[in-house]
Specification:
39% of the residues lie in helices and 22% in strands. By secondary structure, the protein is an alpha+beta fold.
Length: 409
């Protein structure tokens, strides 16, 4: 077996205990942080996420049959289901992401094979860093590997399958961004995604910067209802604007100048929601240009403007998120900061001069905890690698003693 890192080695004893023998593959899928472009995805706009160096892993072995046995290390429970009977599990919720992505892949005409494996993740759950997308993508990679079908599903289509699993099987409305960046992220790069066409390109991240992510440890319980409300308000804005602008399909097609010219069509709150989306789309494209120039000051200014727009026009910030952003900005090494994710709780992200990340971290611990009486978590990262599958035996594939398939017992 090839050398394994500490996290993966910690998964091995449970694999041996539950399944006997040794695993043959490791699937890894990262979480994500969105650098800029919030609430633009469902308006067919632009987003600029990056993959985290935190991930979900599946240490697994293919089976000869269509039985799936997965043990979740952090939850300490084992699920056992059959690919011929993919049904929602009301008791063990996390398993629905695995079941759902298997269902979505089979909807695409694939005939999957069973797997047995251990699942473990260090993407904080409920923090807005896309632990669910990472779980879906890691399981999808495991299923495709077991079926010898990794090359049969291109990256964008794999992301669509993960989104379909979450929307239609799990029952959570989400956009395409989270699985897309988990599948297609690249170390040292952000990923500009056009959420209408799904065209994408990788943008080099400035070498002199790092990302500091502050987890407020405040629940995002309001985010789901607010998400649906904001989405409906954007759709109302488009309907009203189309009375004069019949060619538009979404807010993606509206410039700030056009929005201001037809402001009289919109109730004040709908106008403000639309103004955020229109200006945020422009900020994403401006940020890409600043990244390409390695202009950290401009990137930071745009992140600050994004947070102000999310706070004032879209109204999805919170006392905790504002306190986190302010604590980040107290240090001179921070170029800019903003909430990331749906809002109300979860995380904020700061663009920080390399070498100054510890000072920003200490500022968060000192000022945020004093103001909110909550001890936060802080993660320091650079844009990292997207999803991949690693054969655990030299030359790939199954070890010689099991070539032809793992046991089916």
């Amino acid at each position: 077996m090839i050398p394994l890192d500490r996290r993966t080695r910690a998964m091995l004893p449970d694999f041996v205990r539950l399944f006997g023998g040794e695993p043959t593959y490791l699937a890894i899928a990262p979480g994500r942080v969105n650098l800029i472009g919030e609430h633009t995805d469902y308006n067919e706009g632009f987003v600029l996420p990056a993959a985290l160096d935190r991930d979900v892993r599946v240490l697994f072995r293919p089976r000869r049959d269509r039985r799936v046995r997965l043990y979740a290390l952090e939850f300490d429970n084992l699920v056992d289901f059959h690919l011929d009977r993919l049904e929602y599990d009301g008791q063990i919720f996390w398993s629905n992401y695995a079941r759902g992505v298997a269902w979505a892949l089979e909807q695409r005409g694939l005939r999957l094979r069973g797997v047995e494996g251990v699942v473990s993740g260090n993407v904080p759950r409920g923090s807005g860093l896309s632990s669910s997308a990472a779980l879906e993508v890691a399981c999808a990679k495991a299923f495709l590997t077991a079926a010898d079908a990794l090359l049969a599903v291109p990256g964008p289509e794999l992301a669509r399958a993960a989104q379909q699993a979450e929307n239609e099987f799990v029952g959570v409305r989400c956009g395409i961004m989270d699985p897309f960046i988990s599948v297609l992220g690249q170390a040292g790069h952000g990923l500009l995604i056009d959420c209408r066409s799904l065209d994408y390109r990788r943008v080099p991240f400035p070498s002199e910067a790092v990302l500091v992510i502050g987890n407020t440890k405040v629940s995002r319980s309001l985010a789901a209802s607010a998400y649906n409300e904001r989405r409906a308000q954007c759709e109302e804005g488009v309907r009203r604007l189309r009375s004069r602008l019949p060619h538009i399909r979404s807010l993606r097609d509206v410039s700030l100048q056009v929005l201001e010219a037809h402001r009289d069509l919109l109730p004040e709150v709908v106008y403000r929601r639309c103004r955020h989306v229109v200006t945020e789309n422009a900020r994403v494209l401006e940020t890409v240009r600043a990244m390409e120039r390695q202009d950290l000051e401009e990137m930071g200014r745009l992140m600050d403007a994004s947070h102000a727009s999310l706070r004032d026009d879209y109204q999805v910030s919170s006392q905790a998120l504002d306190a986190m952003v302010e604590a980040m900005r107290r240090e001179a090494g921070c170029h800019g900061a903003r909430l990331t994710g749906a809002g109300f709780g979860g995380c904020a992200v700061a663009l920080v001069q390399a070498g100054r990340e510890k000072e920003v971290q200490e500022s968060i611990y000192r000022h945020y905890s004093r103001r909110m009486r909550i001890w936060p978590e802080v993660y320091i990262t650079a844009p990292s690698q997207g999803a991949r599958v690693l054969p655990l035996w030299e030359g790939g594939g199954l070890p010689r003693s099991r070539r032809g398939g793992a046991r089916s017992g």
